[in-house]
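To: structure subgroup
Subject: Chain for Friday's discussion

All,

I'm putting the inputs and outputs inline so they're searchable in the archive.
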Amino acid sequence: MPIKKSASKELRKSKKRHLRNIRTLTELKTLNKKFISLTEEKKIEQARKILNQLTSKLDIAAAKKIIHKNKASRKISRLMRRLKKV
């Protein structure tokens, strides 16, 4: 347990940030799963819409340093390649 007042405030802030980061990561995972299922079903138009959402969310997460920028760009390029295959 924190002793100083500033340490307790920092603990509260870090808990809020942690929850926010987890929320965005789960959102990314669900969008990724939707995109993969749509590409497997060969629904290209819906997959493109999900891909646009997913790329913007990945870029935002990378900008906020929730995930690394290289990881975001790697995921985006792999998703684009997957869409081109279909």
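Points worth raising on Friday:
The mean pLDDT is 97.
The chain has three helices and no strands.

D.
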